[in-house]
């Protein structure tokens, strides 16, 4: 049995020192009343979250090393890569043992695999590559073999797997070989096979390595003109950026292009995360002075930013990945669990617990308040009872999103400084906030990085009808919550 409490205590002391973590009551006048109580994935009916368990197809990670950490994290859906080259090493012969083990174990734990059809297979001429930046299969012989493998995998797992994804990052590194037309053609032939065998399947397409609006427009057009676009349930994208709040204008622009062809297909952020240490050769956004703290801030800002835009969000990845081939040359340290070349778990990182906090609070019992406006006028009271107005005592840029419980109507607001990439400091600054048309019975303050929950003293908040004012609230570039206490699972 994993003692997460002991591990968390040792991690926090190691990373920050006792004084930095315990600056709560003395520094900001708030009284700690407990911490977020983690929830097992099986306790959660549904949520916005997915978890990256990629690269098992290339043996960069070991499923058995981290499987006991999956359920306690609180995320039900797992992103896996199907590994054509690992399964079919001899033409016409499939060895499913490795994938059977993972799928059977995950589903026995109540988890839900989301399996990607990737990569190519070099035993066939024109069979495509087997790593990032690989070309898609293109010869008639290879594509026929691809079709057989896809059909065999869907037939094998259709009773346990309903979620699929087609290929991975066709445009990685500005890949000129995988044109939008080629990527669309592979999506079309693959989804036809999946839907023929498993009509109820949920299929993700595109899996953008970075958002290229021209590429997306061509992909959508080819799919639409073939009459196959609306067979897809969602369009996935990755788009690593240093400031996790900076790319939403581009995401929304891609959504507008998609809606020219279909308003039924949703967007899914299919793979995103930040490193816990910096350095070249470690993959996307690695060349920065990252720490476990800035990683935790980045991951939680990405999750809650996606939630605030009604986009499903996948965390990359459960564990550090020991790449030994392809364009990434060193340990990819975007894992929530620390590992090394042995692929064994050393310990959970701060990001593991921060993501665990998000999963414990934000499940499908909450619905987004779609109209949270910044009025810059604390006197403004909206006429529309569904319009929540947010006012702050500063011109700094904040990300603010609101949610309400579907049954009680009690609310929670996420707030963080959004104007720059996450730094490596725990220092906070004090700001005042006013919410009009809000609903709190007993408001609390929550730091989502540490999971600490604080009572807000009565002299720091007031209520006038449905208008709430909060004074001297500590804010930094990691997410905090102003929430009704009933919405936070608290362990004392």
Automatic annotation (TrEMBL):
SUPFAM superfamilies: (Trans)glycosidases. Keywords: Hydrolase, Signal. The keyword Plastid does not apply. Residues 1-22 form the signal peptide. GO terms for molecular function: hydrolase activity, hydrolyzing O-glycosyl compounds. It comes from the Bacteria. This is Glycosyl hydrolase family 39.
């Amino acid at each position: 049995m994993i003692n997460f409490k002991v591990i968390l205590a040792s991690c926090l002391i190691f990373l920050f020192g006792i004084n930095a973590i315990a600056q709560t009551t003395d520094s900001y006048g708030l009284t700690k009343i407990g911490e977020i109580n983690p929830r097992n994935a099986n306790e959660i009916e549904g949520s916005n979250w997915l978890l990256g368990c990629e690269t098992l197809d290339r043996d960069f990670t070991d499923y058995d090393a981290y499987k006991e950490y999956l359920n306690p994290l609180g995320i039900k859906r797992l992103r896996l890569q199907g590994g054509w080259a690992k399964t079919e090493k001899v033409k016409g012969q499939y060895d499913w043992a490795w994938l059977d083990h993972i799928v059977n174990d995950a589903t026995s734990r109540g988890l839900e695999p989301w399996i990607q059809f990737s990569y190519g297979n070099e035993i066939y001429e024109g069979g495509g590559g087997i790593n990032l930046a690989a070309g898609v299969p293109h010869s008639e012989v290879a594509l026929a073999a691809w079709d057989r493998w896809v059909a065999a995998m869907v037939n094998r797992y259709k009773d346990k797997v309903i979620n699929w994804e087609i290929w991975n990052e066709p445009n990685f590194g500005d890949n000129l070989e995988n044109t939008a037309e080629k990527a669309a053609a592979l999506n079309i032939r693959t989804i036809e096979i999946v839907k023929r065998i498993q009509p109820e399947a949920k299929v993700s397409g595109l899996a953008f390595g970075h958002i290229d609006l021209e590429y997306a427009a061509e992909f959508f057009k080819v799919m639409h003109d073939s009459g196959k676009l609306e067979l897809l349930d969602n369009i996935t994208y990755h788009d690593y950026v240093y400031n996790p709040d900076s790319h939403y204008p581009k995401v929304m622009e891609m959504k507008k292009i998609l809606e020219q062809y279909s308003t039924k297909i949703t967007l899914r952020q299919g793979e995103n995360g930040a490193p816990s240490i910096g350095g070249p050769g470690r993959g996307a956004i690695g060349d920065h002075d990252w720490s476990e703290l800035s990683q935790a801030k980045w991951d939680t800002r990405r999750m809650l930013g996606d939630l605030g835009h009604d986009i499903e969000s996948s965390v990359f990845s459960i564990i550090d990945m020991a790449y030994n081939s392809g364009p990434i040359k060193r340990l990819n340290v975007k894992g929530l669990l620390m590992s090394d070349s042995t692929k064994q778990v050393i310990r959970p990182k701060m990001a593991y617990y921060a993501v665990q906090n998000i999963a414990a609070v934000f499940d499908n019992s909450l619905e987004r308040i779609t109209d949270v406006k910044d009025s810059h006028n604390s006197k403004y009271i909206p006429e529309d009872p569904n319009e929540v107005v947010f006012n702050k005592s500063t011109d700094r840029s904040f990300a603010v999103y609101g949610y309400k419980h579907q049954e009680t109507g009690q609310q929670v607001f996420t707030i963080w400084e959004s104007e720059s990439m996450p730094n490596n400091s725990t220092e906070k600054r004090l700001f005042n906030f006013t919410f009009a048309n809000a609903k709190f019975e007993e408001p609390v303050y929550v730091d989502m990085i540490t999971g600490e929950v604080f009572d807000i003293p009565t002299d720091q908040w007031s209520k006038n009808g449905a208008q709430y004012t909060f004074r001297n609230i500590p804010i930094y570039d990691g997410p905090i919550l102003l929430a009704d206490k009933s919405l936070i699972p608290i362990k004392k």
